Each structure stands twice: as C-alpha cells, then as structure tokens.
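WARN retry 2 of 3 for item q-0093 after timeout on previous attempt; input resubmitted unchanged.
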Amino acid sequence: MPRVKRGPSHVKKRRKILKAAKGYRHGRKKLIKLAKVAILKAGAYAYRDRKVKKRSMRRLWQIKLNAAVRVFDISYSKFIALLKKNNVELDRKVLADMAENNTELFAKIVEKLAPEAVKVAEEKAEAPDATKVKEGKEDKKVVEKKEAK
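OK item q-0093 returned
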C-alpha cells in the first residue's frame, strides 16, 4: 500500500480556515490557531444572536402595537386578549406593520374587536380641550386657600 502524504489536505484545511476568518482584525485573520478560535466564537455568537434577534423584534412589535392601541384607549394586553377571544390569527408582526403603515385598516380591526374604543378615540380627536392637565400638590393648596377666603 502506498504511503499517503497529508500535505495537500492539510493546506486545504488551513486555507478554508483563513478564508472563513477573512475580514477579522490582527492575528485572527493570519494565524491559524487564533483564526480557529475566532471562527468558533463567531459561530457561537451568530447562533445566539439569531435567537436574540427574534426576541428583540417581538419586543419592538409589542411596543408598536401598544402605541397604536393606546389611541383607542385600550391597553396592549386587553387588545391581545380581544384578538384571542375573537379568534383573529394575525400575528404581532403583521399587526405592528399594519398599525404603522396602514392605519385605516388597523382601525377597522380594532373597531371589529372593540366598537366602543373607536368611539372614544373619535371623541378625543374632535374635542381639542379633552386633554386633562394634572394639577400638582402646590396648585391644589393654592386653590384650597383661595376657596377658604
């Protein structure tokens, strides 16, 4: 049986590692030992962050939906409960995009789920003086003193 020399396969393996480490800084792109570790770490971080990306996008959709339904005086949790109760199978991603880019359609969905919520939102929009100004403790004391005189 002839003797097998491993030079070509060894060089190919190293070339593959260095190609994967292209763009890294300092010795991590030139030195095999450092490049191997860098590639392993990069793979681990990439795997982890694919999961983190899904989490952070879901949080973003929740924030967008909460802001959109607050206009109708509904909390995010009540809105989601209404969706589940009425068997609406639109996910948060689609609803958040709809709330941001297609507000009329989103308003129709909210109206179907909670008709009284849309009426409240319309009343707020029509009445410019509907915003309530909260009085501080000092303001209340001044008002009470004037009333006492």
